[in-house]
Write a structure and sequence with these properties.
The protein is mostly helical and about 400 residues long. It has helices at about 40-45, 50-55, 55-60, 75-95, 105-120, 130, 160-175, 175-190, 195-215, 220, 225-230, 270-280, 285-295, 300-310, 315-320, 325-365, 390-405; strands at about 105, 135-140, 150, 250.
Length: about 400
């Protein structure tokens, strides 16, 4: 029989975690401009691609004034500043490819970047929270949130493929919103012993995961694997577990010792972390350690949500205890849909990384480093790893297999 939540057991709510009713983890209505004082940043950030291609980005950044970050007031201003400083940093480091990286980020970029990062609780490197969650606007403000009506605020080399990659990832985040909103219903239903409410919420949850898989399928429409692998990928790479920057990067004026940060990774999205904690998915030591480290690349309020979901009573235990057929079926469907999403992601990674990597190796072995073949321009340091530094296929398959373990 269902019980009520007592005063000491306040209902679980998304309110404290800066999660939007409409957009989930996506930053609603990101700013496109900073106050005029910061125009020197925006002038470079909005032209990073052209400056990389002309080999002029580093020289432009070196001439940039050292600006004071105290005039950045709102959260949205800080997020845009972090995004702008991030794309400048990725371009500065990788302008000449993996064979001519830098050991130091200049102080006029490093100092404000680290100050903004500290205020936001994010690391000083391009993250999923920057490139995807805070890097969008609608062409028609009254129009739909879809591929035709979305554009990036700042971009990196790769042309329309960059927009495709980040916008499809954004649509996956949007598709997940009903699942995020169902999490409090599930947690509160478990606390009250209300199997019917939990069943309905889990049905919403599984439908949303299916929507995420459907959105991810657009990656094949909007992004060419050879462009992603041969051009874009290096600009998403970090300076941790990367043999082309084994010592990391010195942030001049911040600290004398080099710092190491991982590049962008789907594991920096809070979505699947929340889903795993809700469903009770337990990861193996190595993959679990990587996933836990990726939480340091999320906005702190989103990281806190994941941790707080993990502290709730076990949903899987509740489902087993209730022995209610519709509830068990709803839970199992969530696991099945999450497995399917992870399997499809493996398919995407194979097409966008594994297959182009094999082609690039083949060309190198034949001594055929051709500019006609886009994949041959790809860095060799990350051939078997994700931009976040994980050994990518074994990691993804292990994570998928641990998801299967929670089946009832």
């Amino acid at each position: 029989m269902a019980s009520t939540i007592t005063d000491s057991q306040k209902p679980f709510s998304l309110d404290p975690y800066h999660v939007s009713e409409e957009y989930g983890f996506i930053l609603p209505a990101p700013l496109a401009e900073l106050p005029p004082y910061y125009q020197p940043w925006m002038d470079i950030a909005q032209h990073v691609t052209e400056l990389i291609y002309s080999h002029m980005l580093r020289s432009h950044i070196l001439k940039m004034p050292l600006l004071n970050t105290q005039f950045l007031g709102s959260h949205r201003e800080l997020r845009l500043a972090h995004l702008a400083l991030s794309v400048m940093t990725m371009g500065y480091v990788w302008q000449e490819g993996e064979d001519d990286t830098v050991k130091m980020l200049p102080r006029n970029l490093a100092i404000p970047y680290c100050e903004v990062s500290q205020r936001l609780g994010l690391p000083p490197i391009l993250t999923h929270a920057d490139a995807v969650l805070a890097n969008w606007r609608k062409r028609d403000p009254q129009g739909l949130f879809d591929m035709e009506n979305l554009e990036l605020l700042v971009t990196l080399p790769g042309g329309d493929n960059v927009r495709g990659f980040f916008m499809v990832t954004l649509l996956v985040e949007l598709a997940a919103v009903p699942a995020i909103k169902s999490i409090p219903l599930v947690i509160n239903g478990v606390q009250c012993g209300d199997a019917e409410t939990v069943t309905r919420a889990l049905e919403e949850f599984s439908q949303a995961i299916q929507g995420m898989t459907d959105a991810l399928k657009l990656m094949h429409v909007y992004v060419k694997p050879e462009v992603f692998y041969g051009i874009m990928r290096i600009y998403l790479s970090g300076w941790k577990d990367n043999s082309s920057m084994p010592a990391g990067l010195v942030y001049e004026g911040v600290q004398a010792e080099p710092m190491e940060y991982s590049g962008g990774s789907a594991a920096q999205s809070s979505l699947l972390h929340c889903f795993d904690e809700l469903l009770g998915v337990k990861h193996e030591a190595k993959s679990g350690a990587f996933l836990t480290r990726m939480r340091n690349y999320m906005p702190p309020s989103h990281k806190r949500l994941i941790q707080d979901i993990s502290l709730q009573p076990s949903l899987r235990g509740f489902v087993q205890q209730q022995a209610c057929e519709p509830l068990t079926a709803a839970f199992q469907l969530c696991v099945t849909k999450l497995l399917a999403l992870r399997s499809y992601h493996i398919n995407v990674v194979s097409r966008f990384i594994t297959v182009p990597a094999a082609r690039a190796r083949q060309l190198r072995n034949q001594g055929n480093i051709s500019q006609e073949e886009t994949v041959s321009r790809a860095p060799t340091a990350l051939e078997e790893t994700g931009t976040g530094g994980s050994g990518i296929m074994s990691f993804l398959k292990t994570v998928r297999d641990r998801t299967r373990d929670v089946s009832i």
